[in-house]
Specification:
heterodimer; A: alpha/beta; seven-stranded mixed β-sheet; two-stranded antiparallel ribbon; 7 helices; 9 strands; B: alpha/beta; Rossmann fold; 4 strands
Chain lengths: 161, 146
């Protein structure tokens, strides 16, 4: 069982993840993989408490990469959340084998270009996306289960160049 | 008639600074709740509204912090549900600002109770009261079999 969703979403744990994806896939565990959150006692505690009834594990990229294969065989479904494409790329480089990422929310920030209503990318994001695509990883854009999944490369022609 | 004027009539209780509130929700729920509350109590003042629409964690945290940093004696963040970005970003933003307390699961009865008690209770007492009032407002009415 275990890995049911690998998601790139700058809000990490939030409504769409808990309610929409959570109701569909019933995760027993949610891994929040983020070096910044893992380094902050306060934020670790905040996310651990954010999902009543679900075990939340907060880990840095190195720790999560080391635990990734073991978690794949654990009972119950698990989600893994990262906040950006670069973290997904670093997780792959550290040895985590993820075949497909759900791209769920990369919101606007200065310097980012609109790809759709909830995905905005800059050069750094695109570098990370290209590296993942080159490694054969699928990047599937879909905010909630009820909406249609579409590949990131289809939405963003700049990734083809 | 406004809840403000009602509270002034309380008399005995010593004057207390009004507890300000920021309502942070998905989409335009905050506006809709306040519009609905205004149908009941009239014009509402001193409540700030914010939507998480299109905002990253960082931007939502910043927007919340901008709203609460002017509060001298704390205040309440009212958000839609526990674990949502409005709640978790609110918790991060509020952490640096003294007595800012978050109540999640806002509903219309909870909002109305806030309006009628914000001039007489402390931030902490008001938060506890709203938790109880919000919960107690959810009840089941079954039909009677014909």
């Amino acid at each position: 069982m275990s890995w049911a969703l690998h998601r790139i979403d700058d809000r990490l744990i939030h409504g769409q993840v808990l309610v929409a994806w959570g109701s569909r896939l019933n995760p027993a565990r949610i891994w929040v993989v983020d070096d910044g959150v893992a380094a902050s006692d306060w934020e670790r505690e905040l996310f651990r408490d954010a999902a009543p009834g679900i075990e939340v594990r907060v880990a840095g990229v190195g720790e999560a990469a080391g635990a990734h294969a073991g978690e794949a065989g654990a009972p119950g479904a698990a989600f893994l959340l990262v906040r950006d494409l670069d973290t997904a790329r670093r997780l792959a480089e550290a040895g985590a084998r993820v075949e497909e990422w759900n791209v769920g929310g990369l919101h606007y920030a200065p310097g980012k270009e609109k790809v759709n209503d909830y995905v905005y990318l800059d050069a750094r994001d695109r570098d990370a996306a290209r590296a993942l695509l080159l490694a054969g990883v699928r990047l599937s854009v879909q905010d909630v289960p009820a909406s249609r999944a579409i590949t990131l490369a289809t939405l963003d022609p700049a990734l083809a160049t | 008639m406004s809840p403000t004027r009602d509270a002034e009539g309380a008399g005995e209780t010593p004057p207390r600074a009004r507890v300000p509130a920021l309502i942070v929700t998905h989409a335009d729920l905050a506006q809709a709740l306040v519009r609905a509350a205004e149908r009941v109590v009239g014009t509402i003042e001193d409540v700030t509204l914010l939507s998480n629409e299109g905002l990253s964690r960082a931007d939502l945290e910043e927007a919340i912090e901008t709203s609460v940093e002017g509060w001298k004696h704390g205040g309440l963040l009212l958000t839609d549900f526990w674990g949502g970005s409005c709640h978790t970003c609110g918790a991060t933003a509020a952490r640096r600002h003294g007595e800012v307390v978050i109540v999640t699961g806002i509903n219309l009865p909870l909002l109305l109770d806030y309006l009628y008690n914000r001039d007489r209770l402390s931030v902490g007492d008001l938060a506890e009261r709203l938790q109880t009032k919000g919960r107690d407002s959810i009840r089941v009415q079954r039909g009677v079999p014909a």
